[in-house]
Design goal:
Elements (H helix, E strand, L loop, with lengths): L1 H13 L19 H10 L1 E5 L4 E3 L7 E7 L2 E6 L5 E7 L4 E2 L14 E4 L3 E7 H10 L1 H25 L4 H16 E4 L2 E4 L5 H8 L3 H13 L3 E4 L2 E5 L4
Antiparallel strand pairs: 1-8, 2-7, 3-6, 3-8, 4-5, 4-7, 9-10, 10-12, 11-12
Length: about 240
């Protein structure tokens, strides 16, 4: 009876139904055999989160790996002097917490806060480690992803060191338009509603500097504001 229930849960998970969270939608898991995937699907904790809810907090012990099914999160780090820095904005198909596989007694280096309604699958570290040990291809894919993230961060830091605040903001908007944008008449509407304080945290500048830079970019016809969203003009592409 239990086996039939488990198999039914897995079959339902494979269906294209928004009521369920299917880990197989993530490229990391696409190569897993059905047998291993059954165990993951049964063990995964499926969460539906509202905007502004915290998935995990900086300083907490890392006890799970998270896969985002729907929605977006900002990874926020609090510095010793009390300033906030947004490290990254992540969305569907991305994984959080996998770095814990390579460290003992790991803690979260940032806080993950939902920017909108979101659906997340979480897998406890022990279960995930067992799967990784039995699936070498999955381990290699995780290492590749971590390497890509590290290279991406290195590129951002290198560029930021030689850019003005205005250039940083324009670079951020171009990147967000590519990753989170939707086409509109004037260019690309960035679907994430961002406050000036959040932009300041993303580019490492003061809110006053960000406010001034956005005014200048708007005057130069690079940006415009539509209600709670920014539009990156066509001339930037």
């Amino acid at each position: 009876m239990l086996k039939r229930i488990v198999n039914s849960e897995v079959r339902t998970c494979f269906m294209n139904n928004k009521g369920y969270l299917c880990l197989r939608d993530n490229a990391l898991f696409s190569g897993l055999s059905m047998e291993f995937f059954r165990h993951i699907c049964w063990a995964a904790n499926k969460q539906h989160m509202r905007k502004g809810h915290i998935l995990f907090q900086q300083g907490e012990a890392v006890d799970s790996v998270y896969v985002i099914k729907e929605g977006r999160f900002k990874l926020l780090r609090m510095t010793e002097d009390g300033n906030e820095t947004i490290l990254q904005i992540v969305g569907p198909g991305e994984m959080l917490g996998e770095t814990a596989l390579f460290r003992q007694d790991a803690i979260q280096v940032a806080t993950a806060i939902s920017l909108e309604e979101a659906k997340v699958c979480s897998i406890d570290r022990c279960t995930f480690e067992k799967v990784v040990k039995k699936e070498p291809d999955l381990a290699l894919e995780i290492i590749r992803n971590l390497n890509d993230r590290l290279y991406h961060v290195w590129e951002q830091v290198s560029e930021a060191n030689r850019q003005s605040t205005q250039e940083k903001i324009l670079g951020l908007m171009i990147r967000l338009a590519r990753e989170q944008g939707e086409a509109c008449a004037d260019g690309s509407r960035i679907t994430i509603p961002l406050t000036q304080q959040e932009i300041a945290a993303l580019v490492g500048a003061s809110r006053v500097m960000v406010s001034q830079s956005i005014k200048e970019l708007t005057a130069k016809n690079y940006l415009c504001r539509e209600k709670r969203h920014y539009i990156l003009k066509n001339r930037c592409f």
